[in-house]
Every structure is written in C-alpha cells, then in structure tokens.
Specification:
It is a single chain. The chain contains six helices and 20 strands. By secondary structure, the protein is of the alpha+beta class. It folds into three domains: 7-78, Uridine Diphospho-n-acetylenolpyruvylglucosamine Reductase, domain 2; 86-195, Uridine Diphospho-n-acetylenolpyruvylglucosamine Reductase, domain 3 (2-Layer Sandwich); 210-292, Alpha-Beta Complex (Uridine Diphospho-n-acetylenolpyruvylglucosamine Reductase, domain 1). Strand 18 (245-247) and strand 19 form a beta hairpin. Helix 2 (102-111) packs antiparallel against helix 4. It starts with 12 loop residues before the first strand and ends with a strand.
Length: 296
C-alpha cells in the first residue's frame, strides 16, 4: 500500500500482525496494518486520514470469523478496547458501544432488571458484530430490541440511523449503505430479567456447547423449520476431521480447532459438511460465519 501512516498513530499500529492472535478459531494470516484505537475520537481521526482506496475490516472479539491463511490486505480496525461504553438511558433504554461484549450487555441488563436480554449470553461476540448479522441465541434476536444505531463511514462521518433504515431478518441485515460500520446502538428492553435467568442460560450453554474450546460459535444458520446441528449429526458427521479441524462431538454445529488447524482445514471441513448434508438431506447449509482474506 502506497501511503504513510502519520506518526501520531504509530503506538497503536502493528504491521503484519497475525490475526490468529485475535480470532476465536486461533487461525488466520497477517493483517497488513492492525490498528487499535484508544478511544472513539482516535478512531474517527484515523478514518479521516485513511486513503479511500485502502480496504478496511472491522474486528471485535474475532468470533464468527474465519480469516484465511494468507491474511487480510489493507487495514484491520480492532474496536473492543475503544468502543466500550455501556449506559442506561431512561427507564427502558440501554446504549451499548459496538465493542461491548454481548455477555457483558446481558449481565448488566440483568442487574438493571431489564430484558429479555439474557439471550445475549449465548452470543460469543460484541454488540457491533451482533448488529451486523442480527445475531441471536435461545430464541432471542438482536434487532428486536434496537431503537436506533450510530454508524460511521470510512471518512469518519458519524450518522444516527433509526431501525427503520435497516431491513432485518434471520441472521441478516441490509444496511442503507455498505460503507458504514456500527459505533453503537440504543436498545429498548422491558422489565423482568434477572441474574438467575442469565446464569441459567450460561449453564445451559456450558452443558450443550463446547465452551472453552477454539471455535467460532455456530458455523451454519438453521434452515427453516430445522436445526443445522440435527442435520449434521444425523448425517453421521460428528467427529469428522480434516487436518487439525474437527466437527464437535458435543454440538454438531461447532467446528473446533484442536490446536494445529489451519484456516484451510476449517474451510475445507465446512465445505465437506455442506456437501454431505446436501447429499443425504437435499439441503444446502449456509455458513453463519464470515470468511475473509486470501488463501496462503
């Protein structure tokens, strides 16, 4: 890339940073430039000086993301240490920055007796990622509770947008513009949530999912009227392995990196699962995870 970073950003920039350090699958090649803004204003200033032709990828907790072994060209912006504000707004409102982990949002809503928000404990990412894909768990979905969002474009221009500016569906969001990213959202909840509800869902998650192992969360969306995990299990694919990647024997919609997997192993295993489910059930599973970057 033919541009020079101003020296005031040098302390927050890493060159050729391995993205395996920043993804929950622990795979992925290097980012050309990896930027860790210290706060919102630092982020906006960086965007304003960035040439418009430089590719830009936003990164939260690195879940629901497969970075190929060749890495990512351009700039990766890591938001989780910069966009961290979580505030109550009025009787039923909660504002959460894009870098807030969904589990933190769930816990705080329980303390404020607001809900239903406990389903956020089942989303292993940040609010920004949940907004981008209408993430959900345990029957809840992110955009059911969104009142408005704050976005920024690659020129550092901030906008306030209402929920009606977006078309949303199951694990799908159509924004009004493709070059805007989320800075945060205002959510509306009712009363009645509790820390006991949140703890119960956390325990259910521990019992049914391979928590603590290297995965991206759920790999595939659920087909209408069915569950991807059921289809994968009934196709006999639990334990199916390619290289260091394996279909979890605890929950069939999870693919694990047992420690030595490459992104190529995982991507090939995703394709193999799709192929076998299509052959045996006549259904094409759609990946829920986002796949980015270049092959090695």
């Amino acid at each position: 890339m033919n541009f020079t970073l101003p020296p005031e950003f040098a302390s927050r920039v890493r060159i050729a940073e391995p993205l395996s350090r920043h993804t929950s699958w622990h795979v992925g090649g290097p980012a050309d430039i990896f930027f860790m803004p210290r706060d919102r204003e630092d982020l906006l200033a960086f965007l304003r000086m960035l040439p418009p032709e430089v590719p830009l990828l936003w990164l939260g907790l690195g879940s629901n993301l497969l970075v190929r072994d060749g890495g990512v060209r351009g700039v990766v912006v890591a938001t989780r240490d910069a966009l961290t504000a979580l505030e109550r707004r009025g009787e039923r409102g909660v504002h959460a920055d894009a870098g807030v982990p969904c589990a933190r949002l769930a816990r705080q809503c329980a303390r404020w007796d607001l809900g239903p928000a406990e389903f956020f404990t089942g989303i292993p990412g940040t609010v920004g990622g949940a907004l981008a894909m209408n993430a959900g768990a345990f029957g809840g979905e992110t955009w059911r509770h969104v009142q408005s969002v704050e976005t920024v474009d690659r020129h550092g221009v901030v906008r306030q947008r209402g929920r009606d500016d977006f078309r949303t569906g199951y694990r799908h969001v159509e924004p009004p513009a493709n070059d805007e990213w989320y800075l945060g959202a205002l959510f509306h909840f009712d009363s009645g949530s509790s820390e006991n509800d949140t703890r119960a869902l956390l325990e259910r998650r521990r019992q049914t999912q391979p928590i603590g192992e290297w995965s991206c969360g759920s790999v595939f969306t659920n087909p209408p009227g069915d569950h991807a995990a059921r289809l994968i299990e009934s196709a006999g694919l639990k334990g199916l392995r390619i290289g260091g990647a394996v279909v979890s024997t605890k929950h069939a919609n999870f693919i694990l990196n047992e420690g030595a997997a490459t992104a190529r192993d995982i991507e090939e295993l995703i394709g193999k699962v799709q192929q076998e489910v299509a052959r045996q059930h006549g259904l094409q599973l759609t990946p829920e995870c986002r796949i980015v970057g270049e092959a090695a």
